[in-house]
Amino acid sequence: MLVVRGVEKHFGATHALTGVDLTVAAGEVHAVLGENGAGKSTLMNVLCGAFPADAGTVTLGGARYAPADPDAAFRAGVAIVHQELSLCPRLTVEENLLLGDESTRAGFLDRRRLRERAAAALARVGSTTPLDARALDLSPAAQQLVEIARALVRGEPRLLILDEPTSSLGADDAERLFALIGELSRAGIAILYVSHFLEEVKRVAQRFTVLRDGATVGTGAVAETSIDAMVTQMAGRRVEELFPRSEHPRGEPLLVVEALSGSDKPLAASLVVHRGEVLGIAGLVGAGRTELLRVVFGLDRVVSGEVRVGAWRGPRSPRDALDHGVGLLSEDRKGEGLAQGLSLAENLALSRLPSFVRGASLRATAQRWVERLGIRAGSVDAPVSELSGGNQQKVALARLLHHDVDVLLLDEPTRGIDVRSKAAIYAEIDALARAGKAIVLVSSFLPELLGVCDRVAVMCRGRLGEARPIAEWTEHAILKEAVGA
Fold it and tell me: The whole model's pTM is what?
């Protein structure tokens, strides 16, 4: 169905693709793997018509394929769900699903037909989101399902590209997506599946291709290749230890939350986090984990209960929280985590700009964090919007580390991060705990919680359970508590 040979793409002096080869059969789920900055998203943008290749050839269904724009790609049978969501925030779900493809009758919008098509597309992906809900009011998980439904609203494509499709989905939604992928594959649709979750790749894909530094460096059958072998191909070397864990003795209580409730969620949450401790919070999407961190940080209103950091009782606002050593890494890096129009360096220093106004070197400081976290960028002056999603996530984390807070509230910190970068982030978390920081880690990836945290608490329907030592938990036990069993 798809044959890519020697594709190259340059952006000025940056060589994003230097020679990509890829073959995908009809009905095949083909995983595209690689570190952040390896060229995966650039290749997907070439295939969906966002910009042309500078060299090489692509054929689709045996015919030459070089779409002039995304609409031409869609008409040719290529649909894509991007990693960075692209919904129009003030339009409704129905309007987003059918934007540019509205059904008409005698020159007027056929409202009934529009609603039928939108409802069918949502049902296909298992979403129960109301059609008249505005996109900006939806959770990241609900927005992700709308994006996937939009790719299918015109009918079944010949080639479907899914770029990190489960990055915002909980376990139940991910399961529905996997079932849908199986249906589409059996119907003969070729699927390109881009993901950093190699366990998912082992489950849904038949073959894989690895990109590194813009070129194809390996391909093979998923069933015949171990996860370790895939990681080695992606990184160019063996990643010895994904979850580094060292001794970090627990100190005095630093963050204390008592009977906390917000305007919506949490309904009831109490926890104590000590210096030198990583406390994980598990739960299904919608359980209230993100809302808990937002209330603790002062983004959402405290209805009842109390937050204490040392002797300080608060917060009244995020500024108060930062001033007293509490920082938040948002799960929504595009909507509220980064200022997309500012440079990498400016984003990194946003919360501590006065120190640079007094003469500190912004570029030198930014460069140190770029090197420490392995951020791939042509320059610290480059707009952060030009970075890959994973590298943007690292910039958001670097800002929190640069502010040097004592309590780090990390909401899905490794979302969209490749395996080697995840290992670096985990090592950073471990080092922070050794240095006496208190870390609260929200994650939907259970191996991450079990591998990184000292204790884990599970949130279910807005209520936070007791935090217990990691030795008392298994994935099965966490899931059982998360569903209220």
Answer: 0.67
